[in-house]
Amino acid sequence: MVHVATIQCHLMRPLIRTFFLVFAVLFSFGQAICTRGNDIDTLRVETDVFADRKDVPIARSLTLFSGTVAWDFLDTASLEKNSPDTQSTHSEAFDGEIILHDPTRERVLLIDPRRQVKTSIDTIQLERLRISLSKWARTSKDKLICWAGGPHFDNSFHESVNTFELVGPRAQYRIEVTDAPTQKIADQYHQFADTAILLRALLHPGGIPPFPRLELNKRIASKVKIPVSVTLQIDPRGTLITSGLSSVMQRHLHSTHRIHPGLLADDLKRIADAEACMAIAEEVSLAAYTETENK
Hints:
Layout (H helix, E strand, L loop, with lengths): L3 H6 L2 H7 L23 E10 L7 E8 L2 E6 L23 E5 L4 E6 L4 E6 H16 L4 H6 L8 E3 L3 E6 L2 E9 L3 H21 L7 H12 L2 E10 L16 E10 L4 H16 L1 E2 L2 H8 L2
Parallel strand pairs: 6-12
Antiparallel strand pairs: 1-2, 1-11, 2-3, 3-4, 4-5, 5-6, 7-8, 8-9, 9-10, 10-11
Helix pairs in contact: 3-5, 5-6
């Protein structure tokens, strides 16, 4: 298991990856044609992640909910070269790794189109990770890590109609929400987000354990809501100032998202291309997949 010192040294990288999985509801940009807008089982979510209060996103992703599965497309473009108002609805965007969340088959499939390889992770692996992380975190001497191990967060919550806040030692989550179209969509989003967060914890160990976010996801879904924006502030040096988000923190991550209650014409083509890529990709072990990816 990762030591506390290692976690603190590598705090930012897993947090950035985790924020891929937190989404907000805004209007979709452009005038792309919606092909399945009346299908309650479809949803498109674009995510931009920002750090240190800068205007240019450090990461982007596109998530397409279709039926019982969710396709997650990551953007590998050099975001530093983009302007802050650059839109990412073009067909050539999000050409990086593809992640298929398939709860019916109880698996997650990672696909690298460029290397034409894929690997699968089943839900049992993620559940074992959840149990192992929780036991380890609760015995940590670091107050933030120990607190994040859960399971008792009741005294740390501050909830209003459309805002959820969770405050712990040196950390503060703030999530703004909006109404989900249906309870089914809220539950599907909840399941997807939980799986994605545990997947990031497996692939990129370190950082804050996922349990505060898992608890937030649960409470948001129970209110038939979907996140609108997510802000995480971390002070690695001392006690978190709880006087509001205006206080200056050492770490500041913020995600904004655009959701459309249906899939666009380009989205259907993107899914078809992903299915074709999945069919021809070579199946490899998780170790081989991540080892080659990091070279």
